[in-house]
Task: inverse folding
């Protein structure tokens, strides 16, 4: 307890008994106990406030990191969408201009008309 040995504590109590007197010593001890309890509650409250503030600060930092990651994902997705749109436009342009593509034309067979079908 604060680096005080038992013998030093006994000396302090004897001096307090002599200075305060035996009739007022219980009241003084009770008052010191109440003050000590208040001080501990105050210190615990300050510790809790500091812990809460640190947790809030950590949450804000985490939120900023998540926002940055989300922005990065959004940029990557928009870049991918632009690439897909460009490739789609290129394919659409190739389909609209078949003479640019070297694909063989397959002749289609026509169906016979009713006049061409022989009747027996």
Result:
């Amino acid at each position: 307890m604060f680096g005080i040995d038992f013998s030093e504590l006994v000396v302090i109590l004897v001096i307090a008994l002599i200075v305060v007197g035996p009739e007022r010593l219980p009241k003084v001890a009770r008052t010191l106990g109440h003050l000590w309890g208040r001080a501990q509650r105050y210190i615990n409250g300050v510790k809790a406030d500091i812990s809460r503030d640190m947790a809030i600060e950590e949450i804000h930092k985490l939120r900023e990191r998540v926002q940055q990651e989300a922005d990065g994902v959004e940029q990557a997705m928009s870049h991918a969408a632009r690439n897909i749109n460009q490739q789609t436009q290129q394919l659409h342009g190739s389909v609209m201009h078949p003479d640019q593509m070297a694909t063989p034309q397959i002749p289609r067979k026509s169906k016979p008309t009713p006049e061409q079908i022989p009747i027996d």
